[in-house]
């Protein structure tokens, strides 16, 4: 390496600056914590080899590597003029000065350490060979597989959350133990992931979550995705962002796709650590079969084998003929015409037009008709619901989404009651047990349901009178809107709406427990989109208070196969089915299955953002 005064031309002016005896190394700039110890300071004689160029800056690496595993030898140099300068190339060894800045575009994100207002004072060498670090290769173990941060108290999903901030605590990095620390220790570095696989769908920009082919992983499901579990949000996964060469990542990547090896720089943006690849992702192979099999749980047509399904139909609108047709195909082909279908996210008859309409007869009637047509007339469905108060159920403005039931009228009927309930009147549990209003809403005036869907309770019997009463409670609890990312500043991450869902869990569970207080042997099913994971409060609170049994547990579904939703890097379960002990036993529960009709598919082919589930019961 030359140490004499160097002359550099082509940066707008000729620079002639003598080498200084004082210099900050990249390791000193990064330090062994999340925030640079030199934040806000001017630095000089920062020497590094250019590893990559992007549209707004370049990345450099220390010529002499640090021996501290906690400290990154890479650094992002922010400056579009420098990035566009054709005299600067990968492999050039530069000497720079500038200001160290911690940058984030949102206060909920982690910071990115940058060298800003850069000034190149010398080019010491050209054409230096740049070799990426291979993650999971020699000398660089794969990421931790369970914990994100030492600030999470051992549980990334803990409640209460948002108890501390990385930006305030700024802990010493422990990359061998924590995922955030691992990726922070590689910030700005050029890395390679060998034989990666996709563990999530690409977003609208083509950003895709992956893990390396040789990495240690946890929560692997049969589709090779990563299923979350208690305390484990899969910090080993990393998002592949926008290619630096301005090419595009594919938009139709599927869960489990095998990809060509990826080389890029580690960065932080939009709330997540990410790798910005040198060029776009290439899919090598997709898994077979591309579509999941249908449920094995077909109705017997008698009380000895009744099928009950749940499906979030994602903003079902009467005017959306294509969506109606796709849902009908799912009900016929995947769910095999269940006897009772609980649906969530049904819009009113005018859809998102905010005109005061609250009824959804046209919407549900259109779905029932579409199923009849798709089945070739093999099934005729009736429907029932209770209209909400206009503008008070959340969801798309004007759409008045609600939960509802479709049922095989030739087999099932609603038990007699004082009539159907309305938006303001709570159904009650009467001796027997029976419902005063059937169907009826569960405590609709309770503040727990502010701007949210109210559960719809119903009591069912077979038309031929051979069954016991089957009580169902169809739920769609409040959304997780307002959550922070698992890579965010708040620790544990913000679980948006968790307090509202806890209140909703209490109200729902109290209603169900009142049925079981009347008869401990009653057949009760609670099902729908709970918007929460089974191992996280409020669902743990709901299960304990209601006395119901999670059918995933009762049916011995492998934990890694308990998923109905694909979000970021995680296969996860927001949709659940619970049953009373008398109905969840092996003599009554004939099977329970998640049908991955949507999580296996790219965005363009899916019918809903949720998977449906099917259970089969003996209710004689």
Question: Which key features would you list for this structure?
Answer:
single chain, 620 residues, alpha+beta, OB fold (Dihydrolipoamide Acetyltransferase, E2P), Deoxyribonuclease I, Chain A, 3 domains, seven-stranded mixed beta sheet
In short:
With 620 residues, this protein is an alpha+beta fold.
Tell me what the structure shows.
This protein has 620 residues and is an alpha+beta fold. The protein has three domains: 6-125, OB fold (Dihydrolipoamide Acetyltransferase, E2P) (Beta Barrel), CATH 2.40.50; 132-290, OB fold (Dihydrolipoamide Acetyltransferase, E2P); 306-617, Deoxyribonuclease I, Chain A (4-Layer Sandwich), CATH 3.60.10.10. It is built from ten helices and 35 strands. Strand 31 (565-567) and strand 32 (570-572) form a beta hairpin. The longest helix is centred in the last third of the chain and has 21 residues, at 498-518. The chain is elongated, with a radius of gyration of 28 Å. The N and C termini lie far apart (85 Å).
Instruction: Give the amount of beta strand, in percent.
Output: 25-35%
User: Which geometry do the CA atoms define?
Assistant: elongated
Rg over CA atoms, rounded to whole Å, is: 28 Å
Total strand segments: 35
- Count of individual domains: 3
Helical stretch tally: 10
CATH class placement of the largest domain: Alpha Beta
The CATH level-2 architecture of the largest domain is identified as 4-Layer Sandwich
CATH fold annotation of the largest domain: Deoxyribonuclease I, Chain A
Give the integer mean of the pLDDT values.
95
> What name goes with the CATH superfamily of the largest domain?
Endonuclease/exonuclease/phosphatase
Adjacency order of strands in the biggest sheet: 8-10-15-16-13-12-11
| Sequence stretches where pLDDT stays below 50 over 5 or more residues | 1-22
**Class per helix and strand makeup:** alpha+beta
